[in-house]
Specification:
Order of helices and strands: EHEEHEH
Number of domains: 1
Number of strands: 4
Number of helices: 3
Largest sheet: 4 strands, parallel
CATH topology: Rossmann fold
Shape: globular
CATH superfamily: Response regulator
Strand content: 15-25%
Oligomer: single chain
CATH architecture: 3-Layer(aba) Sandwich
Length: about 100
């Protein structure tokens, strides 16, 4: 199973999106699990687990370069989530699934 971590500011909106996108991807037959956390935990992201992909939410896009260094050190891909892909709506989730599948 591929592991994806969605990083956002407080973790509230991202937890709902992570659940919904995991359901959508698994419905499509993809073996991908998406979880979420706050970007403020970026120094300890890989302490307990390896992630195949880090997704940076629009709220913390200014941290992309800092988190990219951590991702590179841990052989993980990283991608920016666009504003139009960051919502628990069917259209946004389809856009987010495309971002994940193109970057994992």
């Amino acid at each position: 199973m591929k592991e994806v971590l969605l990083l956002c500011n407080a973790g509230m909106s991202s937890s709902m999106i992570a659940k919904k996108i995991t359901e959508l991807l698994q419905k499509k037959g993809e073996d991908i699990n998406v979880t979420s956390t706050t970007a403020m935990a970026n120094e300890s992201l890989f302490d307990e687990k390896h992630y195949d992909l880090l997704l940076i939410s629009p709220q913390v896009r200014m941290l992309f370069n800092d988190i990219k260094k951590i991702a590179d050190q841990n052989n993980s891909n990283i991608a920016q989530v666009t504003f139009d892909a960051y919502a628990p709506t069917p259209i946004a989730l389809e856009k987010l699934s495309k971002i994940i599948l193109e970057n994992i």
